[in-house]
Specification:
Elements lengths: L1 E3 L12 E5 L7 H16 L3 E8 L2 H5 L10 H10 L4 E6 L2 H4 L3 H13 L1 E7 L12 H11 L2 E5 L3 E2 L2 E2 L2 H10 L2 H8 L3 E6 L6 H6 L4 E4 L10 E9 L2 E10 L10 E6 L10 E12 L6 H21 L1 H8 L6
Parallel strand pairs: 1-4, 2-3, 2-5, 3-4, 5-6
Antiparallel strand pairs: 7-8, 9-14, 10-13, 11-12, 11-14, 12-13
Helix pairs in contact: 7-8
């Protein structure tokens, strides 16, 4: 998949361009339905399937602190590539760009730069200053410029509307099972392993790999989760605690993962952690001994969960996204 990160890079129209536009936070099942429609239509025309998204997320610019993201731009690009899209256009979103009219967006970007022939959008899509670029507007512009507009209906999973906002709510509740159903995969956090207080191995007996959250990251419900850790292309089970480590009076929120059957120095290395299921809330214990006893119980329960879903997890860890 070819990625364009500035509009200046778009120096010629694409062949039989079939396009979808959106923020695509989480690249959930509803988004995947859009990408599938775009890829199929482009394939039939021997054309180019194109996704247009924005970085940063518009709400991060227009309402700072108003949204926490399910996936960062790198994760989003990986998932869009896996959906079979040929070209990803990442439009730099600024307050100046936000003032662009819907007419200008269509005429200058979609028609002149992209060479759009087909547009595929979700049932509730709107864009441009004042969200004037709604579906009736797009259909009128399609008639004016000669491109077709296909509207994809809302996608439901087990009776639940699949949406980024619904997934955020589920993650805030710690409901990884239901969130995973709407995402079509396990929810994942990732980052470079940080040097922490190093209490896990020396004092408690359960060494951990620590990841820090950025201000933009969505932080799931504080507590302990069954996890699946991908490091150096290998997959391990684990238990992960998200929180401030109240037993030791810490303040900053971190994700601490104890990886099963693992004893390697991975400080500074990138890891990916799939959150499979919520075990319990974060708790303040009387001391190290009580904490270690509870972690032992968490490990036993986590291994039970991993064993119950062994076949599914083997397939999940073999997925291209996790390698």
């Amino acid at each position: 998949m070819k990625i364009y990160r500035t509009l200046e890079e778009l120096n010629h129209p694409f062949s039989h361009a079939c396009v979808t536009i959106g923020n695509f936070d989480g690249v959930h099942l509803g988004h995947q339905q859009l990408f599938g429609e775009v890829a199929n239509r482009a394939y039939r025309q021997q054309g180019t399937s194109i996704a247009i998204t924005f970085e940063p997320h518009p709400l991060q610019v227009l309402k700072p602190g108003g949204i926490k993201l399910i996936s960062n731009c790198q994760q989003k690009a990986e998932l869009i590539r896996m959906a079979g899209i040929d070209v990803l256009v990442v439009v730099p979103f600024t307050r100046e760009f936000a003032a662009t009219s819907a007419d200008t967006f269509v005429d200058e970007l979609l028609v002149q730069k992209i060479g759009i022939e087909e547009l595929v959008v979700g049932y509730d899509y709107a864009f441009g200053k004042g969200r004037a670029g709604n579906i009736p507007f797009l259909q009128n512009k399609g008639e004016e410029h000669g491109f077709s507009v296909t509207v994809v209906d809302a996608h439901f999973k087990d009776g639940t509307l699949v949406s980024s906002s619904q997934i955020r709510r589920l993650l805030a509740e710690g409901n990884m099972v239901e969130a995973g159903k709407l995402l079509g995969r396990h929810y994942q956090i990732r980052g470079q392993v940080q040097v922490g207080k190093q209490r896990g191995g020396k004092e408690i007996g359960f060494p951990t790999a620590n990841l820090k959250f950025s201000e933009e990251d969505l932080v799931p419900r504080h507590g302990v989760y069954v996890s699946q850790v991908i490091c150096d292309g290998k997959c391990y089970g684990g238990v992960l605690n998200i929180g401030c480590n109240p037993t030791f009076g810490e303040q900053s929120v971190v994700a601490e993962t104890h990886i099963f059957e693992f004893n390697e120095d991975i400080y500074g290395k990138p890891i990916k952690v799939n959150l499979l299921d919520f075990l319990r809330d974060e708790t303040r214990f009387s001391g190290i001994e009580e904490l270690a006893t509870q972690i032992s119980k968490d490990v036993v329960r986590a291994k039970q969960v991993l064993s119950e879903h062994q076949k599914e997890l083997v397939l999940s860890c073999g997925d291209e996204f996790n390698q």
